């Protein structure tokens, strides 16, 4: 795992510990603490926002609350699905040839993805490419 990945994992682990997922510790894998740096998710989020300060503001998402009138003792669970955007999308290898080249730069793209992951504090994260 690269340094950035370890920092993200550390930040996500902190947010998971305060989420609904922390109610089921049998599903959480404890990482080797020697390989993780303690990272504050808010600090990491601000760092990525600083990198992206020249970009247009991110789309503000509205969430759908699926709870009905039935009271529940369980906290709500937020699920996030993210398509990380394949490199082929801007190279004419598929039908998405109008994707701007700058949108494919990994240094910025990864910051956009990580900003979204940290900003919405989901309980379940699904990544696809």
Description:
- Belongs to the CCR4/nocturin family.
- Residues 16-39 are annotated as: Disordered.
- Keywords: Hydrolase.
- This protein has 129 residues and is mainly alpha-helical.
- The protein has one domain (3-57, 77-128).
- 32% of the residues lie in helices and 8% in strands.
- It has a two-stranded parallel ribbon with strand order 1-2.
- Helix 3 links the parallel strand 1 (79-83) and strand 2.
- The mean pLDDT is 71.
> Strand-and-helix sequence, N→C?
HHEHE
What percentage of amino acids are in beta strands?
5-15%
Q: What's the count of strands?
A: 2
Helix/strand class: mainly alpha
Strand order of the largest sheet: 1-2
The overall number of domains is: 1
GO molecular function: 3'-5'-RNA exonuclease activity
Organism: Marmota monax (Woodchuck)
Family: Belongs to the CCR4/nocturin family.
Protein name: Nocturnin
Outline of the structure:
By secondary structure, the chain is mainly α. The chain has helices at 3-17, 41-51, 106-120; strands at 79-83, 124-128. Strands 1-2 form a two-stranded parallel sheet.
What keyword list fits this structure?
mainly alpha, two-stranded parallel sheet, 3'-5'-RNA exonuclease activity, Endo/exonu/phosph_ase_sf, Nocturnin, CCR4/nocturin_mRNA_transcr, hydrolase
């Amino acid at each position: 795992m690269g340094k950035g990945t370890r920092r993200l994992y550390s930040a996500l682990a902190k947010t998971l510990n305060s989420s609904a997922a922390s109610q089921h510790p049998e599903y959480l894998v404890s990482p080797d603490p020697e390989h993780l740096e303690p990272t504050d998710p808010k600090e990491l989020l601000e760092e990525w926002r600083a990198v992206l300060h020249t970009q247009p503001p991110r789309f503000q998402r509205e969430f759908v609350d699926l709870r009905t009138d039935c009271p529940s003792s369980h906290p709500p669970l937020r699920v996030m699905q993210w398509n990380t955007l394949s490199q082929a999308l801007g190279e004419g290898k598929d039908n998405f040839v109008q994707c701007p080249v700058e949108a494919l730069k990994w240094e910025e793209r990864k910051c956009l993805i990580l900003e979204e992951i940290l900003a919405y504090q989901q309980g379940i994260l699904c990544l696809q490419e």
